[in-house]
Structures are given as C-alpha cells and as structure tokens.
Specification:
The complex is a heterotrimer of chains A (262), B (359) and C (263). Chain A has 262 residues and is α/β, with parallel strands linked by helices. Chain A contains 8 helices and 9 strands. The N and C termini of chain A lie far apart (42 Å). The relative contact order of chain A is 0.18. By secondary structure, chain B is an alpha/beta fold. In chain B, 40% of the residues lie in helices and 14% in strands. In chain B, helix 2 crosses helix 10, helix 2 packs across helix 11 and helix 10 crosses helix 11. Chain B is globular, with a radius of gyration of 23 Å. The N and C termini of chain B lie far apart (79 Å). The relative contact order of chain B is 0.17. With 263 residues, chain C is mainly alpha-helical. Classes of the chains: A alpha/beta (262), B alpha/beta (359), C mainly alpha (263).
Amino acid sequence: MANETQHVRLRGLSHVFADGRKPLHVLDDVSIDVPHGQFTSIIGPSGCGKSTLLRIVGGLLEPSAGAVRIDGAGPHDAQRRHDIGIVFQEPALLPWRTVAGNVRLPLEIDGARRRGTDAESLLDLVGLSEFRDYYPHQLSGGMSQRVAIARALAVDPTLLLMDEPFGALDEITRTAMRYELLRIWASQAEATARKTVLFVTHSITEAIVMSDRIIVINGRPGRVVADAAVELPRPRTQEIERSAPFLDYADHLRGLLIGAAA
Amino acid sequence: MKNHGLAYVLLAALFAVVAFAACNDDDDAAGTPGPSALSATGANGTATPAPPDEVTFMAGFKPQANLPFVGAYVAQEKGFFAEENLEVDIQHVATPGDNFRLLATGQVQFSTSDATALLEKWTSDPVIEVVSLALIGQTGQQGFAVLADSGIESPADWAGKTAGYKGSDVPPDYLAILEANGLDRSDVEEVRVPFAPQVLTEGQVDIFPVFIANEPDTLSREGFETRVFTAADYGAPTLGLSYVTTPDYAEENPDITARFTRAVLRGIAYAETNREEAIDIVLQYAPQEDREHQRYMLDTELDMAQASASYESLGLGGQTLSQWQALHDFLIEHDGLPREIADLSVVFTEDFTAYDGGE
Amino acid sequence: MNGRLRGILRGVVTYVLPPAITFAVVIGLWEAYVTWRDVSILVVPAPSDVWERFADDPGYFWGEGWWTLYEATLGLIAGSAVAIALAVIMAHSRPVERGLLPLAIAMKVTPLVAIGPVLIVIFGFGTTPKIFLAALLCFFPMLVNALIGFRDVDSGALEFMRSLRASPWSIFWKLRAPSSLPYVLSALRITYPLALVGAVIAEWFTGNRGLGFVVYSAAQNLRTPELFSAIAVLALIGVAINIALSLLERRVLFWHESVRSTR
C-alpha cells in the first residue's frame, strides 16, 4: 500500500540571508526525499538552518537556490490546496478568540471550508474538549501548544511541519507532549492516510523517540551530514528510551553532532 | 512603609513652600503709588522738585489709533506727562475686559472704556465702579456693515438676511436699528460671529458688526466697499470711549487725576493739529499696523469726538448728565442692562476736564 | 457584614476615598486662601461662590455641557473614522504612509486658535465648525495609534496566516484589526478629551450653546463664579468619560495583558 512517489522532494536547496552587511549562508545543497506518511526529524545544533529549511518547505521563504516539490507542486500551491499544516515553537494563538475559535481559524480563511475537520473532534483529539470556551491566557504552555496542533490539523493537511514545537515547554510537559503527539498522529485516520511529518528539534532523545527517520544537518552553512532510519517498533513507549538500540542511536547521533560541530 | 513616610515628608515640604510664598507675597502690587508727599503743581519750587508720581494707564484694546490711546501716546512722547510730573506706564489689555479687573484691584489707575461697557459694570454682579473722566467718543463706535453691492440700501432691507453680532448677545444698537426700521427680531437671522471680516466678504453673513473707524477702511483697502449703518443714524443716543478710573482713586488722588486728564487731553489736541506726527507716534507703539489705516482711524475718531453739543459747549471730553441718562434709558429699553442705575451722576465727573485748549 | 458588601466597601475605600480626600483638601485650602487674603471675586472666586452660582441653576450648566459633549462626540467619531480608514491604507502601503504622514504631522502642529475663524468662514455658524475642530484634534493621535496597532501584530500569528495563504483582507480583519484594539482604545482616552477641547474652542468663536460659549460669555462679563462652574462641569464630563472608557477597556480587552495585569 506504500506509495512509490515521494511526498516531499527537496533538490539542491541553498539559502543565503543577504539583508545584513555580511551575507549569511545558512543552507547549502540540501536534497532530501520524504515519502508519504513518514515521521522525519531534522536535528542539528542551533544556527544550522533547520528552521530556515522548514520555512522554505512551508512556503514562508523563497530559497536562494534549489527547488521544493510537495506532491509535485511548489510550496505556494500546496499552501493553497491546504496540504500543509505548521506548528511553531510559540503557539501564536489569537488571544481574543476562544480555544475553539482559534482552532476554527484556518477554516474561515478563503475557501478552506470545502475540506476540513470540525473544531469539536479536533479538540477531542488533543484532549481539550473541556476547554473549548477558555481563552489562551488561561491556558498553560502545553495546553496552548495542543491548541496549536489542533489548529494546524484543522484543514486536514497531508503534510505537517513542526519547528521545535515543544522547545518552550518545561522538561516534564515536554516529555508528555512527545507521546501525546505520537498518539494524535497515530489516531489520525488509517495508516495509509497518515500524515507526513517534518519535525525539527535539537533534542536527540526526542528525535529518536518520535521518528521513523532522522536527518542530521550540521555545519555553517548547514549540510546534510547523516540520514538514518530509526528501526524501533511502534507504538513507541517510555520503556524504549532505556533500551539498548535506543542508546546506540543516541550515541551515534551525539557523535555526529559534536564531532562535526563547526 | 518607608515609601509612605517619604511621601508625607515631601507633601509637608510642598505645603511649607506654598505657605511661605503666600505669606511673603507683597501687598503692594506694582504701580499702586500712594499720594506723593510733595506733589508739585507745576509751579517752580525753590526746593528740590518732588519725585514724579507713578501711575499705570491701560488701553482697553491692542495698540492702535483709538483717540484716547493716541492722547496717552502723544502725552508720553511729547513730554506732557513729564511736565505734569507724572511717570506713566502705558499698557494694553491682554484679554478685553481685563482692564476692569485690574482697575478694581488697584493694579491699574487709569484706563479706557466704551460708554455702554461702563454702564454695564455698574449693573453687574459684583458691581465694578468706574467713573468717566472725559468722554472722548461723543457718539457710539458700533456700526453694521453691508457690502456696497449687496443691494441692501437701508436696514429695512435686512429682512430675510443674516446678521452677525459679537459678544454674548445682540447689542442694543442692533435692536434700535431694527425698531427704527419697522423690523422684528424674527425678520432677521442672527448669528454670533468671530472678528474675521471674511464672514462678510465670503457671504456667510449679509450684515457684519464693525467699529466705524476700523473695518470699513480695512475692507475698502482689500477692495470691498461697504455701507455702514449706525444706531445714531436713527436717533439712538450712543456714546463712545472715555478715560476712566475708579471713584475711590479719583477721590483719594484728585490732583494726580487732574494732571493725568489734563495731559492726555492736551495730547489729543496736539494730535488734531499734528496728525502725521501723531501717526508716527502711534506706529512706535504699533509697529505692525498700516500707516494709512491708522490715519483713517485717527481722522474718523477726531470727527466723532466733535460730533455733539457737549463738545461745542464744554470742549474736548465734555460730558453731561443728560447724555449719560439718554444712553442709560436707551439701554434699559433694549435690555442692554440688567437693572437701572438710580443716580447717574456717579458714572461720570466733570471735575477734571478743566482743559480748555490753552496752556 | 457579608462578603459582597465588604467588597463594595473595599472598592470605595480604594478608588473613591483618595481622590475625594485630595479634592476636599484642595477645595479647603482654596477657600481658606481666598478668604484669608481677601482675594477679589473678580480675580479668583472662592469655591463657595462657585458652588452658589452653580446651585442656582445646575440645569443650565448640565444642558450646555450636554451640548458640548454632543459636538465633541460627533467630532470624535468623524475624526476617528477618517484616521482609522487612512491608517488601514497606510498599513498596507509604505509609499502612502510616507506621502501622508508628514502632512498629518503638519496638521497637528497648526495652532488651532488661528484656524478657528477660518473654519467658521468655511463651515458657517452652526455645529459644523465645532464638530470639525473636534475631529481635527482627534485625527492625528488616532491615526498614529491605529497605524502602530495595525502593524504591531504577533509575528508568529502573522506567519501562521501567511502559511494559509490568507489574503491581506483576511489578515486585516482577523489579525490586524483585533490587535489594534488596545491601541485604538488607549488613543480614545487621549482623543476624547481633545475632542471636548476642540468643541469648546469652536464654541468660543461662534454660536450660543455649549460650555465654550458659557466660558466666553462669563469671561467677557467678568462673571468668574459662572466661569469656574462651567470649567468644573467640563472637568467632570472629562472624568466621567475617562471612567466610561476604562470600563469599556476592561470589558473589551479582557484578553490583553495590560488589562489583566492591573490587579
């Protein structure tokens, strides 16, 4: 049942920020193929261009060089078709709308109505049904991010881009949220219609726990230095974090990150 | 708690400063001289001459060629005040009406006033007692101007037109004109206007209130000829500007009052025979004014000063009870005063207009 | 004493008592000074004189105050509407902003006392010049605040909406406009009093209604207790408006930190 065609294709992606006095070269010649339904983490130290990469894929930034194809189309077209959902590190909820109102927001924007999941079931999915009439200032960090996730899923996108979504949370909440996200991702339709996820993080543990595949980007400018599958069984549980294969992966990745640090 | 304490200390300090300043406030406002010990009468004294008496004169409007102002300017510049052993500080009001307040509090000794305004002060609450020392303007200053090409030939044509007024309500002069021409207030639309003559030239109003010696000339220089109607045209006993002081001051300082009045009347007489020089002097006090316009003002006001029987019999500044009574009755009739003044002899005095053109 | 009553009492003590005491002290000092130093009523009336005049005919002052408020409010609405409309355009177009902002600033520094008569020449003698002057005074602060408000949106939220390919119109209605509310409401705190000032100044020049006229007429005739009464009523109106706007802010901006953190 697996699709042969790739969902996301990046070819020779490079980006230079040219607005300062010295041009900042953040990405160099990144080429990646991501199949449908795969959970891919992009990991690397700060400043190596991971966020830039995500923004380019999401259509928020025009790359200096290279191409992005999402189901054959450019990012802007994918946006228009509502194939993309984005979650940032800051939930960026609209404070004057309720939780339900925030989740509904994407559906109110030109023509998204034709396809979409209703706010109720989304809130149910992320476990916030009771809080539908609360306002963002009444929510904790973790709850706000759950709303952001529900919001990103509102247009029922096929591709989910997440840029360090748990970066602003405390350790305990963060750990819980990882498994929450996995649960949400798994319960979204059947395996064939599972969403493709590109997940940027700088936590090795997080990457290994969550992903089917880890891409390591390192250096200035950032380049792909490793691209490995994570062959751990699903569903992932907390015990896995203590297992030997997990620790092996962790060592290996740590070595890649520290060794190649600029 | 520490913060509260500091706040109280500062507050107390503030009160202390204010109280100290208030207590040390000198009672003598500038310009309130007592009668001088040895007031010279102009005669040669063998002893050292007495120091001049200091008084303040406040003109009731901005510096310009209103006749009473001219009298003071000339008296100053030609040394008439000095010859009367007076040192006069010439001021002009900041806001119209201020001069009455300053007269009442003793900060100013002499000023000018329109006759109607003077009577109003005797009937206001509280009463402000002002006495006319010399009635310079023997007929009222107010007029109502229409554009010459407006087709309005007489006030009878005001029906259906828009008339402007200055001040808080329509003046008695206006009402007198209406009455004399068989009109009712409801026949004319009345609006309060600012000092800008543009409301006339732009057609916002058809009838615009003016000072006879002033705006008609200004408008004429801008190319707008006007026709001016006054209440006096229809027999109203209007009066113009006077030199004024408070009755108390005149009573306590009769000599200074006499000398002041003499000097300013002399100033006016001089201006009449030396008009260009008088204008030169006016322009020293009002450098931004237009020379020709000031000349017009002076000429017109000199004519108005001589336009009555009082002038014939009493000379410049002369005034009679019947003049004041007539004005008073006229104002009462047209709701210009809130109540009557029982005895009008208090509003003017002939004691000081001894000037007869000589000396 | 039950909780609610206690709450009200606490509210009164916290919010009403301090200004009331301050006011009473000031009035007391004023009265004492005028009496002790025998200040002429023509210069400064004692508070008792002012109160006497006011109590003699309070309806007159409230009536004229209502009139001024009416003119000021219309002016406020007009000025704010134009300012906000212009700010919308300027928020979406830098060239327009660069073109119009210097003009707006020039308008702001024009002395109003000078243009009062000009407005009358243009607009006539009715309420129009007053509404216009009030609107003129409101215009600039509202323009600047609305513009900043429209621009000062959360960058994350903006990016999110861009990621949905939201049109500029959508972004405006769903993001910029609500974001600007704190700025617009805070501008109202400034502009409403300005609108009152504008109406009063225009009433000074023409017409025979409104507190501006009362002040003019009282000043002309040296009726100082009346003058001070009118000023006091004007001040009260200003305070009432401020309180009303405060309450409005609290209701409408419940979600904004500035309102929430005032505990």
